[in-house]
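REQUEST FORM: STRUCTURE PREDICTION
Request ID: SP-0412
Submitted by: Lab K.M.
Chain count: 1
Length (residues): 455
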Amino acid sequence: MQQAGSVADLGTLLPVWSALPFVGMLLSIAVLPMLAPRVWHHRYPAITAAWGLLFALPFAARFGDVALHELLQVALVDYVPFLVLIATLFTIGGGIHIRGSVRGTPATNAAIMGIGSALASLVGTTGAAMVTIRPLLRANRFRRHRAHTVVFFTFLVANVGGGLTPLGDPPLFLGFLHGVPFFWTLRLWKHVLVCAAVVLVVYVLCDLWQWRREDGVARQRHAAEEEPLRIEGAINLLLLLAVVAAVGGSGLWHGKALRVLGVYETTGNALRDLVLLAILVLSWKLTPDSVRAANAFSWAPIKEVGILFAGVFVTMIPAVVMLRAGEQGALACVVRTVDSPAHFFWASGLLSSFLDNAPTYLTFLSTAVGRLFPGAPESQGIARLILEHPEFLVAISTGSVFMGANTYIGNAPNFMVKTIAEEAGVPMPSFFGYILRYSVPVLVPTFAAMTWIFY
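STATUS: Completed
RESULT:
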């Protein structure tokens, strides 16, 4: 097999059109579920495979062993650990059920959102949303005006709350896999606190107004049917602590270097993934079937995530390596245009609003490294970025995580919450209604204020 170039200079050799399958993959995820939902539901594995092969086959034919090494590197270092963590957190979250009901007052709703937001950085935005959305819906089942509560829940629990740890949101875990220390994201606490506090205050004011519009009969009926809250599947809380220990430990202890199919990995990372898989199995075995049935647990979301992200990780290779090459690569125009933390905050955020925030994060992380340290190896470039220009990584992290809330398709839990709410009889706003009635008047001013405060 002929080898052309090396891993180090792929970014200067690949043409800009090699990123088109990546664009096609992301647009398929964003657009087809709305325009052709039946086709997408039945054909998304084939569509994903088509985009992946459209890039991978010519890439392998042209660059030979170098291309195969890059594909294996992405598969073993990025994709497999990412999927293992997501699947483990999803399994744990699906094994925790909050039974009972309280009265859906503004104070109660705000408390549930606050708890869910805090939980999001521990079990991930998907896990936290799945654990707390049903108690929130039960608490508000007699209220006529509920859609705004679900939308603000999506803002906070499914997005902003996941900004404190790599466990919280996929973009931050990918950053961890690429060399960002596990506890580095804790420095985002001011950004998370300000954003969450502003959004929560706006929600309480909005819900107080809606609460006064509710008729007294519904309030009395609801109060009469309150049930004490209790947690089922509590063993999963202990397993959650084990996940935190496993992931955090892999960042502190790397162990020896391993060479798997020509790709370098560490025993620490390999042990982490094995422990996470063991925790997944324990959660599945130790959680009563009745708890998962109450949560309507299904493996379908993880199957979809696994298939879609296989395509995303493969097709994003050219965009990442071209951006990492800085002004020497074919995407030099992007590197030159995005040149300040504020630019990175809005650029990563706006793309995360309409595409997927995990590859968006990696794309702009590569852009920052390529701009500030062109030609530097990724590990060295990220280490220098954290040491010399941490404000760029802060902007990329917060933009990718927070602005995933701008649309239903910005982050995976958003659409899941919408679906569950509609099944419970909540008339949710349309795609554009969500943006125009909530995102634009609430989130955009909040992000503008954060730009002024932090960037």
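NOTES: The longest strand covers residues 227-232.
Reviewed by: T.R.
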